[in-house]
């Protein structure tokens, strides 16, 4: 999605991108005059090759790559066929067109109508017309043929051009694969070419004035929002188009887990589609058809994450935003949230139905203690924790807004959007921060008991003036054995000395792992994780941190804490919100003292202080296996911090977009 830091977690587009060029399937409108002159052009091999190969083998794709120099609309392929004198019978053929990706055929663009070639036919050029025009932009394309179940009835002519051919096996009855798949390169450049109508020669003058610019052309792919889970709705945007579309229609494709081998979902024709049981384990693409008086064009979105099945959560009690303490706590008669919390006992699971829980705070921060204070005071046990989570099967992830205060032991808060906006932190009045900081800011999600866990949550603050610490551990309670995992945590406040995304202040044995922690540009104040003043034996690993002041700070009497396989990017000299001075800019900042702490396998990329990891005070932090390499995020602009396959840290097992936040499983 287009990820904005003040909104709750929706679905992110997978971390896959359509190969090569955006392609558009066009259906020409009858407004064009039949008598208008249209100039055609060709690309490919239009001469008859000197060599003859009688072996058009059954169930095989063969394509040659060619560069197209001008935009236009492909109408047909033509191939020179010659009967094999040794074989009688018939052979089926289809023309195929593939996009190019890094010099090899990639995504399928078009398939022609079927041609039946008989051994009694003569040698010559045979046309393979497309069912609809294919609009293309300049670039490289792979054009060729796919053969049916009969083998070597037809042969083809060719010339030798090194590396010009790519081929592979493909059962004809299954249709040409999408994408092309691994192929075998060869030197046989077939006598085969494409005919197209250049954009400049289209008979636009015979169309109404509003269509003289031609058919709609995609300039940005449609984007799917929603959660890739059975029973959840997905919604597509229209994308962006040139040439002023006047209408949009929609389709949805079911694809394999990698986003390939797609087929249309019958009956799915609106901009919203609700995921079904048959979609589980697959990915989904939307298809948007944009029309004007000239033509109708289509383009597919990127695929979703792999669709998850229904949750196996068993709910003890339910809450809804409109629930009441006088209800029975069932799905049809739910409690309000605080009543639900109070009613839960060890081993119980409280399920939140879709909606927004909590009262909005004073967004200016001038009024103290506004917003809802959620108090989780009773305790579970290590064998029977208390769980607060989303109700399975609901359309949207619930939003809990306010001060979420976990004082009891062994609570698990999972699969929720948590908006920390409130004004319960009245101590902000003593901050040494810019004058733009209000006197009251947000109290954090606080984990003060033993064994409390945040799991697959999306934690943010919708009010920039109220930014403060996002999650605090062990400030006044135990905080021991706290866990934060597979969550996305936004913002590091607006005051470098006090505000951090995660403030690990005390307790022993905390585990912070497999999270994405980031601040939007210009909005970061402190560190992603502050390890101060006295936490011990924490394990902090496989986290991705981007755009905070520094990745970590450590000091006080913090001892024997272990960090490994963490990436910190774009750290440092983050300006105070509304201020002009910056601070830090390193992987880790030292705050004096601290003993026995280690960092192994760390990456600090594009930090303001360059290659230094920071924190070089003797005895405080032992470093090994440091790096400053580019981690190669999939889409850092939209905060997708999954790693490219070629990333130097691909083997670290860092989380992907489908694993963090409420979308994870």
Question: Could you characterize what this model shows?
Answer:
This protein is mostly beta strands. The protein folds into 3 domains: 162 residues, Jelly Rolls, CATH 2.60.120; 85 residues, Immunoglobulin-like (Sandwich); 290 residues, Pectate Lyase C-like, CATH 2.160.20. It has 1 helix and 50 strands. The strands form 6 sheets. The chain has an 18-stranded parallel sheet that branches. It has a 17-stranded antiparallel sheet that branches.
Short structural description:
The chain contains 1 helix and 50 strands.
Helix content: under 10%
| Unreliable residue runs | 1-37, 201-212, 574-582
What class do helices, strands and sheet pairing give? mainly beta
The Rg value, from CA coordinates, equals 30 Å
Q: Give the N-to-C terminal Cα separation.
A: 19 Å
Number of helices: 1
Q: Key terms for this structure?
A:
3 domains, disordered N terminus, Pectate Lyase C-like, Immunoglobulin-like, elongated, mainly beta, 18-stranded parallel beta sheet
């Amino acid at each position: 999605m287009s990820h904005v830091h003040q909104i709750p977690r929706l679905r992110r587009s997978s971390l896959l991108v359509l190969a090569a060029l955006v392609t558009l399937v066009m259906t020409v409108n009858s407004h064009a005059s039949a008598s208008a002159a249209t100039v055609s052009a060709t690309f490919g091999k239009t001469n008859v090759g000197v060599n003859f190969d009688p072996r058009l083998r059954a169930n095989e794709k063969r394509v040659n790559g060619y560069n197209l120099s001008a935009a236009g609309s492909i109408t047909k392929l033509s191939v020179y066929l010659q009967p094999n004198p040794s074989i009688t019978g018939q052979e089926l053929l289809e023309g195929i067109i593939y996009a190019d990706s890094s010099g090899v055929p990639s995504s399928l663009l078009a398939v022609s109508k079927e041609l039946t070639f008989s051994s009694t036919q003569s040698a010559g050029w045979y046309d393979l017309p497309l069912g609809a025009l294919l609009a293309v932009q300049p670039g490289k394309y792979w054009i060729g043929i796919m053969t049916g179940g009969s083998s070597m009835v037809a042969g083809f002519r060719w010339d030798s051009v090194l590396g010009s051919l790519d081929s592979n096996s493909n059962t004809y009855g299954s249709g040409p694969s999408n994408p092309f798949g691994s192929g075998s390169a060869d030197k046989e450049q077939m006598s085969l070419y494409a005919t197209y109508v250049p954009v400049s020669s289209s008979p636009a003058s015979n169309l109404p004035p509003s269509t003289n610019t031609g058919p709609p052309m995609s300039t940005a792919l449609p984007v799917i929002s929603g959660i890739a889970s059975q029973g959840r709705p997905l919604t597509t945007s229209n994308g962006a188009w040139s040439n002023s579309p006047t209408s949009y229609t929609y389709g949805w494709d079911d694809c394999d887990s990698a986003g390939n081998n797609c087929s249309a979902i019958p009956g799915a024709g609106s901009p919203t589609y609700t995921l079904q049981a048959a979609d589980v384990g697959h990915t989904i693409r939307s298809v948007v058809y944009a029309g004007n008086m000239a033509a109708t064009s289509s383009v597919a979105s990127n695929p979703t994450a792999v669709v998850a099945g229904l949750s196996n959560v068993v709910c003890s009690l339910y809450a809804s935003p409109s629930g009441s303490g006088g209800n029975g706590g069932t799905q049809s008669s739910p409690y309000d949230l605080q009543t639900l919390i109070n009613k839960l006992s060890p081993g119980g699971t409280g399920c939140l139905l879709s909606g927004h829980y909590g009262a909005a705070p004073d967004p200016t921060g001038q009024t103290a203690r506004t917003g809802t204070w959620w108090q989780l005071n009773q305790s579970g046990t290590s064998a029977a924790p208390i769980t607060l989570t989303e109700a399975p099967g609901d359309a949207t992830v619930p939003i809990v807004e306010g001060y979420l205060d976990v004082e009891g032991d062994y609570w698990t808060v999972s699969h929720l959007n948590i908006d920390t906006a409130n004004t319960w932190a009245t101590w902000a009045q003593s901050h040494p921060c810019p004058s733009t900081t209000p006197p009251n800011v947000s109290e954090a999600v606080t984990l003060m008991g033993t064994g409390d866990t945040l799991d697959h949550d999306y934690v943010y603050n919708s009010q920039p003036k109220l930014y403060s610490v996002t999650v605090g551990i062990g400030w006044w309670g135990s905080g021991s054995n706290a866990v934060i995992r597979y969550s996305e945590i936004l913002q590091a406040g607006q005051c470098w000395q006090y505000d951090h995304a995660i403030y690990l202040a005390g307790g022993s044995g905390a585990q912070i792992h497999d999270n994405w922690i980031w601040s939007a540009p210009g909005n970061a104040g402190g560190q992603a994780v502050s390890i101060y003043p006295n936490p011990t034996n924490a394990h902090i690993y496989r986290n991705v941190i981007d755009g905070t002041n520094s990745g970590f700070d450590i000091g006080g009497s913090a001892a024997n804490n272990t960090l490994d396989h963490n990436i910190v990017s774009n750290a440092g000299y983050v300006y105070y919100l509304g201020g002009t001075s910056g601070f830090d800019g390193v992987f880790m900042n030292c705050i004096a003292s601290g003993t026995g702490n280690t960092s192994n396998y760390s990456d600090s990329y594009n930090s303001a202080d360059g290659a230094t990891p920071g924190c070089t005070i003797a005895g405080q932090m032992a470093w090994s296996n440091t790096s400053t390499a580019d981690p190669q995020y999939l889409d850092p602009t939209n905060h997708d911090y999954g790693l490219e396959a070629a990333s130097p840290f691909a083997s670290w097992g860092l989380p992907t977009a489908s694993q963090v936040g409420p979308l994870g499983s």
